[in-house]
TrEMBL record:
Protein name in UniProt: Prox2 protein
Residue ranges, annotated region (Disordered): 1-28, 56-101, 132-175, 241-263, 335-363
InterPro entries named among the record's database cross-references: Homeo_prospero_dom, Homeo_prospero_dom_sf, Homeodomain-like_sf, Prospero_homeodomain
Matching PANTHER family: HOMEOBOX PROTEIN PROSPERO/PROX-1/CEH-26, PROSPERO HOMEOBOX PROTEIN 2
Organism: Phodopus roborovskii
Length: 558
DNA sequence: CAAAGACCTG
DNA sequence: CAGGTCTTTG
């Protein structure tokens, strides 16, 4: 009872920021090198194939969005602390020797590679068959534009005054949602491109065939390497602009007590270092509707829908491809591998950044934007071709929790502060839940909240001592100091663009703390409880992409 | 009384 | 972040 009031206040001095830390270095040189290398390969393949058939303008949004996160904020990152998770998981720890797996997997994978190659060849033939009859019919005139402009997605981040100014380095999230891109699957849709070829010129077809062959082989190689080295590194890139789509239609829930804050200044949370840029209406944009992007729908604490309507614009709901991809990788992997080659130093990242926009695309994203019909066709068609190797699809279900899981949990915190255990289970399909695991995860979120509330209280008090009187003056914007702190804590690697809904919640929380403290409520031992209660009702739906088990792995490696 | 959380500590 | 304690809740 009594311990509630005192302790937090003690350290609320504005100086006690948990900053000044080092980046947790988890990338090995080898990882880097291979990744770049493979990216380059992919790029070439894609370029070739596309160059053959597509009118250049067709699918490119026009800007190449450099997604290389090369320039991290020189800022201090979190304390580098070993992520001690998998180690001491007490009871249900299975301590597999990872390197073993790798070795064994090596040969097996090779065999599978051959298999794959063959199968892909089959696929090509299918493709050609599909192409030839069609080409003459089409004639040279009818190259229609098959890619609806992707402006819609882009507008989200482009139009955001804050995104632009506050996080120039955060470019991991350009496209729409969707997260994982699979080298394997990706090639296939490309292979369908010939349909677009204007004329039925034999030469073209012939050339195409050659290139296809080459491309496919390369792609397979790439996949193999990837799989052996760092399966999912950089594979996923969260696209938050879609979170809103994950739910019904309430794009704009405004919980009671939440209102638009139109104050031109967000004093406390706007650190001195922020100079409003010309033309960027910093504060006057209402927090409630910062972007045209949908807000996270605030959902009452209900059971998460296991599957969102596939009718949503957001391709991330294309679950099938997802699973599909899992299967492929699983097969190649045999089981998750953790191989680290020792290799050459990193290479130029130029080639990569050049092509990164496409490289970042996900198969199912492509499918909707660029390959309306063909993708599904190929996709379905090719499926049976693959594996003679059946594999338990949910292959890498592990018992312990990996650092990747932790990362993912943190990202999830942006959407849900109080996830139920069932929600957690739904979002960690690759985790074998038991009592310990569950409580550990719950504990994680408990810790997350702790940090969160401490920060909120701290900044609220700071605002008060700074002379702020109107809670509406407070808001958490992307350039706020508190935002930086939070982002650093929950999203170190900028794996995800912090969703606007989180900013809203944070703002609200901040204001609530402000009100409470300035009203002197903090003398009450349990004065925070009402705030907790409010916040606990404001969890949003979590984007489906986060559900992917691959996502954890990807995060693991990055 | 058990479970869920907050809070404290290391 | 994990462990432990203490409260609260149902």
């Amino acid at each position: 009872m009594e311990r509630e009031g005192s302790p937090p206040t003690a350290e609320l001095g504005r100086d006690s920021l948990p900053s000044g830390q080092l980046p947790s270095s988890s990338l090995t040189d080898a990882d880097w090198f291979w990744d770049e290398n493979i990216q380059a390969k992919r790029a070439r393949v894609e370029t070739i194939v596309r160059g053959m058939c597509l009118s250049p303008s067709a699918m490119l949004p026009g800007s190449e969005r450099a997604r290389e996160s090369s320039c991290y904020p020189g800022k201090s990152r979190e304390r580098k602390r070993k992520q001690s998770l998998p180690t001491h998981q007490g009871p249900q720890k299975s301590g597999p020797a990872w390197d073993h797996r790798l070795k064994k997997g090596g040969t097996r994978v090779k065999e599978q590679l051959h298999l794959l190659k063959q199968q892909l060849r089959h696929l090509q033939e299918h493709v050609l068959q599909a192409t030839e009859p069609r080409a003459p019919a089409q004639g040279s005139g009818g190259t229609e534009q098959r890619s609806p402009p992707r402006a819609k997605q882009r507008s989200n981040f482009l139009s955001s005054p804050w995104t632009v100014e506050s996080k120039p380095h955060q470019n991991s999230n350009k496209d729409i949602c969707g997260a994982v891109k699979s080298r394997t699957v990706e090639v296939q849709p490309q292979a369908e491109e010939p349909m677009l070829c204007p004329s039925g010129s034999q030469a073209l077809v012939e050339a195409l065939r050659k290139e296809l062959n080459r491309a496919v082989s390369q792609a397979v190689d790439s996949v193999l390497q990837q799989v052996l080295l760092g399966p999912l590194r950089h594979l996923t890139r969260q696209e938050p602009s879609c979170q809103g789509l994950a739910s019904e239609g309430r794009s704009h829930a405004s919980p009671p007590g939440r209102s638009a804050h139109k104050d031109p200044l967000a004093l406390t949370t706007l650190p001195r270092r922020v100079q409003p840029q010309a033309g960027v209406p910093l504060g006057n944009s209402s927090l409630a509707t910062p972007l045209d992007s949908p807000m996270c729908p605030v959902s009452p604490r209900t059971v998460p829908k296991p599957y969102q309507s596939p009718l949503a614009n957001c391709p991330l709901t294309a679950v099938p491809s997802h699973i599909w991809e899992n299967q492929i990788l699983s097969q190649l992997l045999g089981r998750g591998s953790d191989g680290h080659w020792s290799g050459s130093p990193p290479q130029d990242s130029l080639s990569q950044s050049r092509t990164s926009p496409e490289a970042t695309q996900q198969p199912w994203v492509l499918s909707q934007q660029q390959l309306p019909l063909s993708f599904t066709t190929v996709h379905l068609e090719s499926r049976p071709l693959l594996p003679s190797v059946k594999m338990e699809q949910a292959s890498h279900i592990q018992e312990g929790l990996s650092p990747g899981h932790l990362k993912k949990a943190k990202l999830m915190f942006f959407f849900a502060r109080y996830p139920s255990s069932s929600l957690l289970k739904a979002y960690f399909p690759d985790v074998q839940f038991n009592r310990c695991i569950t409580s550990q995860m719950i504990k994680w979120f408990s810790n997350f909240r702790e940090f969160y509330y401490i920060q909120m209280e701290k900044y609220a008090r700071q605002a008060i001592s700074d002379g702020v009187t109107n809670p509406k003056m407070l808001s958490v914007l992307r350039d706020s100091e508190i935002f930086r702190v939070l982002n650093t804590h929950y999203n170190k690697g900028n794996d995800l663009e912090v969703p606007d809904c989180f900013l809203e919640i944070a703002t609200l929380t901040l204001q609530e703390f402000f009100r409470a403290v300035s009203a002197g409520k903090d003398t009450d031992p349990s004065w925070k409880k009402p705030i907790y209660k409010i916040i606990s009702k404001l969890d949003s739906d979590i984007p489906e992409i986060l559900k992917s088990s691959n996502y954890s792995q990807e995060l693991f490696r990055s």
